[in-house]
Write a structure and sequence with these properties.
The complex is a heterodimer of chains A (about 800) and B (about 300).
Chain A lengths: L2 H19 L4 E10 L10 E4 L4 E4 L5 E7 L1 E8 L6 E7 L3 E2 L2 E3 L20 H4 L5 E5 H6 L9 H4 L6 E2 L9 E2 L7 E5 L2 E2 L4 E2 L4 E2 L6 E7 L13 E7 L8 E6 L3 E11 L3 E10 L1 H8 L5 E14 L4 E17 L2 E19 L2 E21 L2 E23 L2 E23 L2 E4 L5 E15 L4 E15 L2 E6 L10 E7 L4 E19 L2 E12 L1 E4 L10 E4 L7 E14 L5 E18 L15 E17 L4 E16 L8 E2 L6 E10 L4 E10 L3 E2 L4 E5 L2 E5 L8 E2 L3 E11 L13 E9 L9 E6 L12 E7 L5 E9 L1
Parallel strand pairs in A: 1-7, 1-8, 12-17
Antiparallel strand pairs in A: 1-4, 2-3, 2-5, 5-6, 9-16, 10-11, 12-13, 14-15, 16-17, 18-19, 18-51, 19-20, 20-21, 21-22, 22-23, 23-24, 24-25, 25-26, 26-27, 26-28, 28-29, 29-32, 30-31, 32-33, 33-36, 34-35, 36-37, 37-38, 38-39, 39-40, 39-41, 41-42, 42-47, 43-46, 44-45, 47-48, 48-51, 49-50
Chain B lengths: L1 H17 L4 E5 L10 E8 L5 E7 L1 E2 L14 E6 L4 E6 L7 E4 L13 E8 L2 E8 L6 E9 L11 E8 L8 E8 L2 E2 L7 E4 L16 H4 L22 E9 L1 H14 L6 H5 L11 E2 L7 E8 L1 E7 L2
The chains are: A mainly beta (about 800), B mainly beta (about 300).
Chain lengths: ~800, ~300
């Protein structure tokens, strides 16, 4: 494919657009939209021009820009959960219109959200598809395990999202593995998004403003993973007054403080969480066993002048497992993001981001002076990303930028002392540079038809200093051995790859209330998450593409139908289908040694993936009773030479049917209730059909050499939560300044022992010689009972 | 194994104390029935004692009532490079599929560095496997110590553990299986499989020519629990243990590693983080007829060094 030709066409299109743009006198309105109560900029606010019937939405920093011919216009600013603001303007020069929107006090009042312009819902109008936005307020209402609000867990209520099982870390989107999701916290990639091995995620809900999940039609500005993008944006901090939020739950407590630093110029937020399981563990166990985690999230911003605003944000979290006095085991992420927003002109918005992210763990034993072991591993990256949005006209918008990421992998640094002799068993560090240039043009072809087309050109270099290994060929599925090694000097390129990634979407509004959308996305992934267990554990590492390990490339096609229903357009429904294929999926030989292994690549297999599905989603967005129904019919398969006789087999997280129903009811001013129901088809697994004995050990054997050809039992569960708002008025009749609420929830109400997995083993009892060995099948339920919980939350 | 143990204890801990909600139940599963195939269990060594190769048929997975069907009427030989043939005679008394070779006085099978071929004639098919006897280091000593904290639930008695001391032979790529007998019985739970690659536990490590690392040295302890699921002391005063280092080929090491992966299941939450998909372990026995009957099992010829000690 000729990339230069494409670039030329885009360039010409811009020039032409510019020419046409200036044949008539046009002016630009731009501004930033904020929440009136706390000054937080609002993402995705609908800015609509009544006269033209067209509109735009605010970007991730609340910025919007509209270019229109001179004239008088009525502009409507609307956002779910906020009162609409309408402004009439006479456009005869460039205008700055900063707007503050007031949050609706309660759904009870049934405020019209879309009013007279029915059907002008974003889901119909926007070209975006395969995207889900989760409002933090909705997340807070979902019944959560142990009452702890969790962003990653709440994704499970969305169509197209599955997981290997309850309690497993991460999430799977449209057939992708968990390591194929790009998880971003204020643009910083998060390499391990869970605390306590997956029961909780690293995001502190008190510090989160916006959560968006891209399952397909991924914008050209995102890259580096093949499956999905979870874009989590942090709050900027209340710029009007000091605000304190906190909560006390069964597992951890939270506290956040936010407020203005310099009036109208700067604000901050600091949010922290700390678990107290290690405290609770005391009475249960002797010794020093304990597991705890903490995390701190902070952000501050400074408005330098009218045009420039600086943001600094960071995250630090750590899980600590104490085993005994002489052992340590801990892990965690660190991220830091510095961003500069520049409104270059009313039409050109620029953002420059510099990001540092690191995940590391440490495991150590210290038996005595002459016998110890210390092991650590990490991945760090340094990322720089300038991004530009050029709002050419009301119908044309250009987004372009660059992204460069430098990686440093420490697969394993190990120093052991055995019987007084010290052995340094560290593996060499690995280095890589991933860079990309991207451009995307969004164009309104007619009032009803939009097209968005772009290209991301990504390039990866696996860099020295390092050793490149060459492996022999062997029977597929067996360990390959090194046949030769070659040393490379510092900065030398060991292997490099380039992938052009076209991204195209199209939307056509069939009528006022419905639209049809289609997209094609190609994505590539150069760093691989190495984990062959059902759920990942903290020791799993990331490894770069090398001369042996090829980058994963995925293609996804989507087609969807979107519709709003009801008198006030209070219902939104969509049906989407997708088809995804991927090359160079990583799989593992049986008995693979993935940790601290110099010859890791010899244990990896290369395969293909394919996934297809149908997602149906219907949501009621407003009113006393709101909620949604999500149903996904899908298939996710892999084909790997050396597994399942080289034939297609379903992925571990494949779920044929996946149904979720969520209902939120506002009972009165003080009480609200949320219920959800989940049903999924049992995930696939492998059973043995034969057994034999090898040196007294019972070995399971599958005579067809199959993988994932049977399924565990279906999963279903019902949860309920009740939220009680604290009194807003004191006994003496004055309004209380602080606001508080209680959340009572019950997870898995009918206490179903949902199977997580079925495994086979030999009974643990010792068998007398001459007696047959006893085989057993076990069913593991992660949450095998009803889990009630309560939490208290406050704000002042 | 160090890493596995740590992670296991971590999950056990979360499962039992933090959440108290996960469970692991024994259930009935129908895994069907299918045609049995030949299983060759051939781990022989250079000790001057009766060497046994066991030929049985595979069984349906849940056939817990009967012993593996014995294979009778096969011919079993081990031949070395020099052409010396060791004939394994079917034990018609035990009738459990054992084929034995009995040494004359101090006779042993083979020497370090020699390649051996196992040949099994059964029902007009020929199955062969090869293995080389690798070198083995001498055992140095065995010590016993009191343990303060095992990690995980344990009963309140005094806990003791044994530790053996030996040095890997200098030069990379030595692989061993450390087999322990407690009061005369082989410890053969899958959780008690103790293997070493040089002085550590995996290939490509720099632990070469040094004393075996702690997890290998202490991997000789029995892993038992009482009726309440509490761990009991690995060794008590009066017990004796005998530890043997068997040299194995790299293929055998990989095989044992696969066996550990497939059979050492701790259940509960560890299923999330430690279990890999069920897959067949490898075999170095092949049917000379590529389209003939399938076969499972492994052949290894080990050199052995051993040492015993009584705990007083």
């Amino acid at each position: 494919m000729n990339i230069y030709r494409v670039a030329w066409i885009i360039f010409l299109a811009i020039i032409l657009e510019q020419r046409y743009g200036y044949t008539q006198s046009k002016y630009t309105i731009d501004g930033i939209i904020k929440d009136a109560a706390d000054g937080e900029s609002l993402i995705g606010v609908n800015v609509f021009i009544r006269e033209t019937g067209q509109g735009v939405v605010t970007n991730a920093y609340g910025f919007y820009s509209l270019t229109l011919p001179a004239g008088s216009y009525t502009i409507e600013y609307s956002f779910i959960g906020y009162n609409k603001v309408t402004r009439t303007i006479l456009l005869d020069k460039n205008l700055k219109l900063h707007i503050e929107l007031q949050e609706q006090s309660s759904q009870l009042e049934e405020i019209e959200i879309l009013g007279e312009n029915e059907g002008r819902s974003l889901s119909i109008k926007s070209i975006e598809m395969s995207t889900n936005k989760l409002d933090i307020k909705t997340i807070q209402k979902l019944p959560a395990l142990l009452g702890e609000v969790d962003i990653v867990k709440s994704l499970q209520f969305l169509p197209g999202v599955s997981q290997a099982g309850e309690g497993s870390s991460g999430f799977n989107v449209r057939g992708g593995s968990t390591g194929q999701n790009l998880v971003l916290l204020d643009e910083a990639p998060v390499y391990n998004s869970s605390h306590m091995l997956g029961f909780f995620s690293v995001f502190n809900p008190d510090a989160v403003k916006d959560v968006k999940l891209y399952k397909g039609a991924i914008p050209a500005s995102y890259g580096g993973r093949t499956s999905a993008v979870l874009d989590v944006r942090m709050k900027e901090g209340n710029s009007k007054q000091v605000e304190v939020n906190g909560g006390v739950g069964l597992i951890f407590s939270r506290l956040s403080v936010e407020g203005p630093l310099v009036k109208d110029k700067s604000s901050f937020i600091v949010a922290a969480r700390r678990s107290y399981i290690d405290v609770l563990a005391g009475p249960f166990l002797d010794g020093d066993l304990g597991l705890n985690f903490y995390d701190i999230t902070l952000k501050t911003n400074y408005t330098l002048n009218q045009k420039n605003r600086l943001y600094v944000s960071g995250y630090l979290g750590r899980d600590n497992f104490s085993l005994s006095d002489d052992a340590i085991f801990n892990w965690g992420n660190k991220t830091a993001t510095v961003r500069l927003n520049t409104i270059v002109s009313s039409k050109l918005f620029a953002n420059f981001s510099g990001v540092y992210s690191n995940y590391n763990y440490r495991l150590g034993f210290d038996q005595d002076e002459s016998n110890s072991y210390d092991w650590n591993s990490s991945i760090s990256n340094y990322l720089f990303k300038p991004d530009f949005s050029y709002y050419i006209s009301e119908t044309s918008e250009l987004n372009f930028g660059l992204e460069a990421t430098y990686f440093r992998f420490n697969p394993s640094r190990t120093v052991g002392v055995t019987n007084g002799e010290t052995v340094d068993n560290s593996l060499e560090l690995k280095y890589a540079l991933e860079s990309a240039a991207y451009i995307n043009h969004k164009l309104k072809l007619s009032p009803r038809a939009d097209v968005s087309y772009g290209l991301r050109l990504s390039h990866f270099r696996y860099l020295g200093a390092g050793t490149a290994y060459t492996y022999n060929d062997t029977i597929p599925g067996k360990r390959r051995s090194v046949v030769s090694e070659k040393e490379y000097g510092s900065g030398q390129t060991i292997a490099s790859y380039t992938t052009p990634e076209p991204r195209i979407s199209f939307k056509y509004e069939t009528d006022e209330n419905s639209s049809v959308k289609a997209s094609y996305t190609r994505t590539s992934q150069y760093i691989h998450f190495i984990s062959n267990t059902t759920a990942s554990n903290p020791l799993n590492v990331w490894t770069p593409s090398t001369n042996n390990l090829k980058p994963t490339v995925s293609n996804q096609f989507t087609l969807g139908y979107f519709r709003t229903l009801g008198e006030k357009s209070q219902y939104e429904a969509s049906v989407e289908t997708y088809y995804r294929t991927s090359e160079n999926e990583v799989d593992y030989i049986n008995g693979a040694d993935l940790l601290s292994n110099r010859y890791l690549e010899g244990d990896l297999l290369n395969g293909q993936g394919r996934a297809y599905g149908l997602e149906v989603y219907a949501q009621k967005k407003s009113g006393r009773l709101s909620g949604w129904v999500s149903y996904t019919l899908s298939r996710s398969e892999l084909k790997v030479n050396g597994i399942n006789r080289g034939k297609w087999y379903p992925a571990r997280y494949d779920q044929t049917h996946n149904l979720k129903v969520v209902g939120i009811l506002e009972i009165n001013k003080r009480w609200s209730a949320t219920a959800d129901f989940v049903f999924t088809t049992g995930t696939p697994t492998t059973y043995p059909n034969q057994r034999y004995t090898s040196q007294g050990i019972l070995i399971p054997y599958n005579s067809t050499n199959a993988r994932n050809d049977v399924r565990i039992s279906n999963y279903h569960r019902l949860d309920l939560s009740l939220r009680m708002e604290g009194k807003t008025i004191r006994r003496n009749g004055k309004t209380r300044r602080n606001h508080d609420y209680w959340v009572f929830s019950v997870y898995n109400i009918y206490a179903r022992k949902n199977a997580f997995s079925t495994y086979f083993s030999q009974s643990d009892d010792r068998v007398a010689t001459g007696q047959p060995l006893q085989a057993e099948a076990h069913k593991v339920s992660i949450i095998g009972t009803m889990v009630p919980s309560v939490s208290y939350n406050f704000k002042f | 194994m160090l890493i596995r143990q740590t992670i296991y204890i971590l999950f056990l801990f979360i499962g039992t104390t933090a959440l108290c909600i996960s469970c692991d139940d024994v259930i009935d599963v129908d895994t069907g029935t299918t045609e049995a195939i030949l299983n060759v269990d051939a781990w022989i060594n250079n000790k001057s004692e009766t060497q046994t190769i066991s030929l049985t048929l595979t069984q349906d997975y849940f056939d817990n009532k009967s012993l593996p069907p014995a294979v009778s009427g096969a011919s079993v030989t081990v031949t070395d490079e020099a052409g010396q043939v060791y004939i394994f005679q079917e034990d018609t008394l035990s009738r459990d599929g054992a084929y034995r070779w009995r040494p004359q006085s101090n006779e042993t099978i083979g020497s370090v560095g020699t390649r051996y071929t196992l040949t099994v004639y059964y029902k007009s098919e020929v199955f062969i496997a090869t293995s080389q006897m690798e070198r083995v280091p001498p055992m140095d000593s065995i010590t016993f110590s009191k343990q303060d904290d095992l990690g995980g639930p344990q009963s309140d008695e005094d806990f003791y553990q044994a530790e053996f001391w030996a040095k890997d032979i200098a030069g990379k790529g030595d692989t061993y299986w450390i087999r322990t007998y407690k009061n005369g019985s082989l410890l053969n739970k899958s959780s008690e499989l103790n293997i070493a690659y040089d002085a550590a536990q995996s290939a490509g490590s720099e632990f070469d020519g040094v004393t075996f690392i702690t997890p290998v040295r202490t991997g000789i302890n029995a892993n038992d629990e009482d009726e309440d699921g509490m761990r009991v002391s690995s060794i008590d005063p009066g017990d004796s243990i005998y530890v043997e280092i068997h040299s194995v080929t790299e293929a055998s090491f990989n095989y044992l590693n696969e066996v550990i992966t497939q059979t050492d299941r701790n259940g509960g939450l560890s299923e999330l983080f430690m279990s890999t998909p069920l897959a067949n372990v490898s075999s170095n026995v092949v049917n000379l007829d590529g389209n003939g009957s399938p076969v499972v099992g492994f052949f290894n010829v080990a050199a052995v060094s051993g040492l015993g000690k009584k705990f007083r």
